[in-house]
Amino acid sequence: MSVASKSTSATFRRLHAGPEILILPNAWDAGSAKLIESIGAKAIATSSAAVAWSHGYPDGDTLPTSLAVATVAAVVRVVRIPVSADIEGGYSTDPAAVGELAGRVVDAGAVGINLEDGAATPDLTCAKIEQVKRAAARLGDLYVNARTDVYLRGFAEGDAAITETIARGRLYREAGADGLFVPGLVDIKAMRAIIEAVNLPLNVMAFPGLPSAKELGGLGVRRLSAGAGVAMAALERLRAYVSEFLGLPPPAAALSSRDLNRLYKES
Prior knowledge:
Elements (H helix, E strand, L loop, with lengths): L2 H13 L6 E3 L1 E2 L2 H10 L4 E3 L1 H7 L10 H14 L4 E4 L8 H13 L4 E5 L5 H18 L3 E5 L10 H18 L3 E3 L6 H11 L3 E4 L7 H7 L3 E3 L3 H17 L11 H9 L2
Parallel strand pairs: 1-9, 2-3, 3-4, 4-5, 5-6, 6-7, 7-8, 8-9
């Protein structure tokens, strides 16, 4: 890892330590990343869904890894702030393959990754995290943000969801994760319980019902991501503009991630 990369990696870790919450917009290509940086973002993450859509693929581990890595390299080339790459579930059920991919992402210049469990078992996710950390250790520092989809996929509800998230968070911490990402989490009581029990910087995603960034920071949440929200806003505007340009009626309903996945699945 170059001196510049080491410095960027250290900056990224400091941004998770406070005192302010890290607000992390999500880009999907070099152009969107450069614009986001120019507006004032302190760091950038890629959105796996938005990157997949930009290449004509649906979200859900369908994007060829060569395109995922090339996107990271393109983003890193044009910005000076830290870049974290969303690599979904690692695009493989083989932990060794996920570790190899993480090495390529580090080589491309990323200083962080998101790695999600999704439908995978916590044990498999732990094995992936362990392989990722081993690969990263050979190349440089890598902030591993372990994402659990307990809330997003509705694996459990109420207190059971808190318990399951804590259990997974502790396992991922023991496997080497540096942060815990819980998209779909909006409940203050649950956030407090998870922060206290897991002892990892908590990342949440912009979601209906989520408290403000200031409130989240006061609760101890360390990172707020946009997810695919920035890309969806851009694509919604694109659809409306082109509809008007073509002389067509405005779309009757808002664009959803399901609509986009269906569209690109047909590619």
